[in-house]
Amino acid sequence: MPLRIGVPQFPGSCDEVDALLAAGHVGDAELLWHRDRDLKGVDAIVVPGGFSYGDYLRAGAIAGLSPVMDAIAAFAKDGGPVLGICNGFQVLCAAGLLPGALLQNADRRFVLRQVELSVETTDTDWTSAAEPGQLLSIPAKHQSGRWWAPSELHAEIADQEQIVFRYAAGGNFNGSLDDVAGVCNEGRNVVGLMPHPEHAVDPLTGSTDGLVLFRSLLQGATNV
Amino acid sequence: MPHVRILIRPKAGILDPQGTAVEQALPQLGFEGVSNVRIGRLVELDAADATEVAAICDQLLANPLIEDYEIQVDGAALAS
Question: Whole-angstrom Cα distance, residue A45 to residue A65?
């Protein structure tokens, strides 16, 4: 049985097609609708980027309340692998599945650029196939990607090695606390990051470094 | 029905880029003496049960991790 990966689509999602294509490199990808509670028995979830519900109120706030997110929260609680990319990361934070919050970039600008990320821990469902400290070149494109957490929470997740990705030295363009680009939950099955691994899976677009997240998922599934 | 005003502001110590932008623009208009500009949101609503408003703020209108809120019912401050 091939791995089956579900990608929920919200009104205002825009990166679900690339998420489906990237997931297709390691398994069968399936689009899920935001009003559905049925995850169709998928083995993993990728919450895609975009501007869910127009990002009205706060980025990710309304999407976090949608029926499909109820199902994804239950799936995550049972240990199911969930990856949130960009707006998907904001949605997972807003839904309380990941620690911290994403604030407007310090310089207020929407930024689109290729960034270097360092893999800070390989002990997650989405980085197990990477090398510790491996540098990934993948694109970032957002205006609200400044990760922030109160100092106690920040210390706690740093201590528990829940910081999964950092912007490489000098590359923290959005003002994120402690250069954090991505984090995971305590169970290490839910990972979120602002840059876009799903846009870096084809040599045509310059880098295939994003594939390692999807290969990690496959590796985890094979080892079970 | 009670009329409720909710003031939502970024928590102290969190960089507020909107406030910074305004603060940097003011000297261009000749206003030199303004500092500590912070920009939040004002939500107004009519609530059948005003005691529910704090829960509404916690669950939707504000993100308690990064924002403080203040509830006023019919013009009087309610402890938040």
Answer: 17
Across the interface, whether the CB atoms of A106 and B17 are under 8 A apart is answered: yes
Helix (H, G, I), strand (E, B), or coil: what is residue A150? coil
Q: How many Å lie between the alpha carbon of B17 and the closest alpha carbon of chain A?
A: 6
- The answer to whether the beta carbons of residues A186 and A123 sit under 8 Å apart is no
Sheet holding B41-46, edge to edge: B41-46, B3-10, B67-73, B76-78
What whole-number distance in Å separates Cα of residue A39 and Cα of residue A4?
11
Which residues does residue A101 pair with via DSSP β-bridges, in sequence order? Answer: A148
Tokens at A5, concatenated: 């990966």
> Quick check: A194 and A49 in contact, CB under 8 A?
no
Tell me if B15 and A103 make a contact (CB, 8 A cut-off).
yes
Q: Which of these, A102, A196, A177, A182, lies nearest to A145 by C-alpha position?
A: A102
Looking at the DSSP bridge assignments, the partners of residue B6 are B43, B71
B28: DSSP letter: G
pLDDT digit string, tens, across residues A38-71: 999 999 999 999 998 888 888 888 888 899 999 9
Q: Is A8's pLDDT higher than 60? A: yes
Catalytic residues of A: 86, 196, 198
Q: Give this prediction's pTM.
A: 0.93
Residue contact B18–A148, C-beta within 8 A: no
- This complex has an ipTM of 0.84
